[in-house]
């Protein structure tokens, strides 16, 4: 027990020198012999402390050249990406999370950073992943945290305790946390313009029920100005968390079973996680995308080619991550909470 306490004390002191800039990135630290004498400890205890710092990415051993602080220690280059866990068997797993996971190496290389994923259980501050996040924050193993959704207050407690900045992808101006938002207004306007080019006049929109409803009100005015219509009963919100296939499928079939002029000739899918539900509803009613109803769908890019004649508009995941990292890096310099960074919508080539 005494040896464990000693190595942890040594590891903590060396770590703090790196975190506080006493030992700068790329600098050579004292030799093992010098450190053993300084801390009045044994070779084994010192080696255990050094191994912990090497494993955590703070130090790198270069043989006879010595031991150095890494060029990019985790406190300036490693970022937490914090996901909630959808209720098993009920919800849809957000495609954005899957794309970030698939593109992890590319995103890391593009930004010269490291990403570490944490999958929390909502309202459970004792779940293993949250405890890992708290431990990594306390040990300086992360430079910041990215939340692809508005975090609950308890999730921010260990970050604030150890002055780890956080950013959330949300339109809401959250107190004490930086935010980045994607231009869904631009997405919807582009979608309506594309449908107008195809001669559509009667438009319906289906999206995540969490989407702020004022977007639909804005779109109704935008449609009216262009000789189109977006009736209130054609503005559908579907929950991604609770039985979206069943509830969403019922709503879509009700929307699309009307005949002639009573049925929309254009449809905007405002969340790509709803795509398959829409296509199944169309198939069950023997309606052809691109002929019976024209569709513009939200997408996260890069995305593989779609099988349907559907135009896609959305957001590039690399641009979104870059915006989050830039906000965290800026905050570490000026300490000012920011809510002004907006990621633009892009159309599929």
Quick overview of this protein structure:
This protein is α/β, with parallel strands linked by helices and 349 residues long. It has helices spanning 2-19, 32-39, 43-55, 74-77, 95-102, 104-111, 128-138, 153-161, 184-197, 214-225, 244-256, 275-284, 317-334, and strands spanning 59-61, 67-69, 78-84, 114-120, 144-147, 166-169, 178-182, 203-208, 235-238, 266-269, 294-301, 311-316, 341-343, 346-347. The longest helix is centred in the N-terminal third of the chain and has 18 residues, at 2-19.
Describe it.
The protein is an alpha/beta fold and 349 residues long. The chain has three domains: 2-69, Orthogonal Bundle (Arc Repressor Mutant, subunit A); 75-182 and 319-347, Rossmann fold (3-Layer(aba) Sandwich); 184-314, Rossmann fold, CATH 3.40.50. It is built from 13 helices and 14 strands. Helix 8 (153-161) links the parallel strand 5 and strand 6 (166-169). Helix 9 (184-197) runs parallel beside helix 10 (214-225) and helix 11 packs across helix 12. The radius of gyration is 25 Å and the shape is elongated.
